[in-house]
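Async update (no meeting this week)

Hi team, since we skipped the sync, here's where things stand on the single-chain job. The sequence we agreed to prioritize is pasted below, unchanged from the tracker. I ran it this morning and attached the output directly underneath so nobody has to dig for it. Comments welcome in thread, and please keep replies under the output.
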Amino acid sequence: MYVMNQSGWLEVICGSMFSGKSEELIRRVRRATYGNLSVRVFKPIIDDRYSDESVVSHNGTSIIARSVKNSDKILEHLQHHHIDVVGIDEVQFFDDNIVSVANELANKGIRVIAAGLDTDFRGEPFGPMPRMMAQSESISKLNAICPICGSPANRTQRLIDGKPASFNDPVILVGASESYEPRCRHHHEVPGKPGHKSKQAITEFSE
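Output:
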């Protein structure tokens, strides 16, 4: 990470599920507290997989967080407090105004650490994340490991009863290991996606 000469900036942590995004957010926030900086962490109220009062990574590490209904609530909670660092987890589930909120905080001299999925289960840009990344000073893109071949995985595979979910399924469905797993580009399957070819069709063509 580059050394900033001015206080107040936006840094983004992105990647597929199980790539360690929340864990990295927690690491950066904890490091800030070691320097006696005042910190607040927020997450969307929809994310209640493990706890509604903490950001919890898939490996079990956690940090206290406030669940909010929308991005404006973040500004309301910070109105009368001097805060040095703000962490925002699961950015993809927030409304589009979250980008303006993050910029407003950064412009006020606050370090903003935002983490989220950059693509949905279909492999498409997810919610406000593309704009958040475009506005940021730094981006850390993390990869998981594809359980099929062991290659770096930058996509999220949704599974329903063990089978790949259709392109036409709802985008937002909060889950954990029973619903999703990381995949590399070669093993990411989205039946019904325009231009998508199944592994069987590719095999038949190669033969």
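Quick observations from my side:
Confidence is low (pLDDT under 50) at residues 200-207.
Residues 50 and 181 are 17 Å apart (CA to CA).
Reply here if anything looks off.
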